[in-house]
Amino acid sequence: MTYLVTIAFVAILASLGAALYFMLRGGQKGNDASKKMARALGLRVGLSIVLFACILIAWSQGYIHPTGIPQGR
Question: What pTM was estimated for this model as a whole?
């Protein structure tokens, strides 16, 4: 499970970096770069939703357990 979360987090950051690259590079080719940037940001949102759903499913199946924050003494 740790590997899945790590891979998903790296993919989210890579997608965000790609969107930044297309945004900064889009000077002359604004329309094409804009479409690529939107696709990269959409991929980032999709990966975030899938990661959140995987965490919820793992919690409901008992693979992960919340430890909670200990209350102050």
Answer: 0.66
